[in-house]
Amino acid sequence: MVQLPLDVLINILSHVPPGRDRRDIGGLTLQNCLGVSYLFREAASLSLLWKPHYQMRYRYSDAYREQARSEAVEGNWRLMYAQRREIDRAALKSLDGIIATGVGLQVALTSLVGQSLDVWDVLELESTCPIPAEFSQTSADLGGDTGEDVPEHAICRRYWARNIRDTIARGYGVGIWRRFKLDSEAPSFELMMSSMSTFFGISDKEISNILDDLGARCRQELVEKNIVIDKTQVDYDLRTICVEICAFICREGFSASFQVKPDILDKFPHAYLTTHKDTIPISLVHVFVAIAARLGIQAFPINFPGTVLCHVSTHELDNPPLIVNPSSRNPDYAVLDDKIPPDESPVHRMSRYHPQQLVQRLLIPCPAAVMLLRFCRNVSASFSYGSDVQKYASALLISVIMLLYESDFINFAELLRLVKLRPLDCIFLLDEVEPYLAEDRAGRLRETCAAVLVEQRAEVQEQKWRKGKNPGFFVGMPFYTHASSSPDFIWKWRGQLQSIGYCSVTEGLGAIHGARAYQDEDEMFPATFTLKDIRYLYNNVVDFPLWFEGVDLPKDPSKGVEHRDGRGRLLLSPHAKQQYPSDSDVGAHWVEHGVFGLGEAESKSGSASQ
């Protein structure tokens, strides 16, 4: 049999495209080649063949452990790939266990979170796995062009993968903010602002990539306009460049927000750099400072009342620094000097009512730590206008910063009630925050987290069996009340069926954790619902996938209409089935026959378990 020359085979394998998806076809192709023959093994063992696959799949890693792995295999990309894939497999095994049983949940979660950025990539891929059509918003949700099948417990899988990844991101963000306690290692204003999105599961690296792109395009525009950007050249004009940066920012769609109702998201970089460009001054200063840095210009925030400004260093003794207002509606008036109309300058306007000496003292570079607290005040002012998911991440972020820096601008207890801590939050807080607190705050945090973890363990271990054959309702049942105009869904019950917890299409998470958490059974009436209702809950109720994983609303294929009188239900997740072992059967019976009831086997099982 004629064999290909080794160099030809290597060339062929070098064209195997690297990919970043759950199937990892490129990596598996090279892996399979190792077992074909001695020749294929020799070709596929070449370290450089694996480099693009490694760099495509693994964008994040714990720096210390990554260096140790690289040194252990002398920089061999194939062996490093094999090491990371082994870490991936262990992480997926832990994830499967968390989804399926919840037993040993805290230990498994602690283990995964402890691996930090080494498991970020695999969790990120799992958090985008295909999901059932009932919950999908885009073709990517259904598998897109990858041809992936919907995995078992898909939305539960996304939920846990995303939440664990988010917890790792938050820990990384807190690690950045802790450096403010060490003056020699204090992070820059740009890094501080970029790290704020870690509480939404977005790494500062992603934010930096967006800013890199903005900086590169701004540089290109300056070059095309023949504007000198080399400060060693005689024609270099810093004022002109600052004006042009502000003009570029305006052309990119950024502007200062004058909304009556502030939006939480326009405070966070992953949003104001993409979809929420109508933002607030501190956000625009972040963009300006970042672009300026990529042009070799040092700029710092100024903690000016009303509007955050920029201090731009000239590094010339005979030239004072420039004061820039990136929020100016007219970029030509962005540099606040005597070349612009006085009314266009917030500094001039303030000077009308305050001594000039006082105003000038305000125009100095501000430490990033001070801007951290200003950022928190901006976010706290927006709690009334965000969705539940946005409020949750924002309140958790502010709680952490309050704990670390003992700021008292918001009542800490009120924030904790808004956050409603979950086990994952407690694991992260006890690991990343508690060791760095004063003892009184550390003790308070330990007590709060201990109560949450004890409650979670008790909840997982408790199974709620029914007594009798006519339960009247079940977890996942849609219902109306006399007061409601849209369906609610039962998500828990306790005691002798005397109290019902529900999630609401109109109230979202507030109905789970808020004032109307329980209803009288006599006020409940079975309801119909639409897929629009389901998608609303999936997108807006933080813990919806923890309890439900699908929808049972049969349709008559021949008529294209709902049958069984429109009866449907939410399908229970493994977590919910473990706590309510008979409710799936009760729900299936009701959907099929229109009546409540338990079969003899279920009734006996429930009686035996009481």
UniProtKB/TrEMBL annotation:
InterPro entries in the cross-refs: F-box-like_dom_sf (IPR036047), SirB1_N (IPR032698)
One family name in Pfam for this protein: Transglut_core2
Q: Which residues form the Protein SirB1 N-terminal domain?
A: 211-328
Q: Which domain of life is it from?
A: Eukaryota
Identify this protein by name: Protein SirB1 N-terminal domain-containing protein
Recite the lineage of the species.
Answer: Eukaryota, Fungi, Dikarya, Basidiomycota, Agaricomycotina
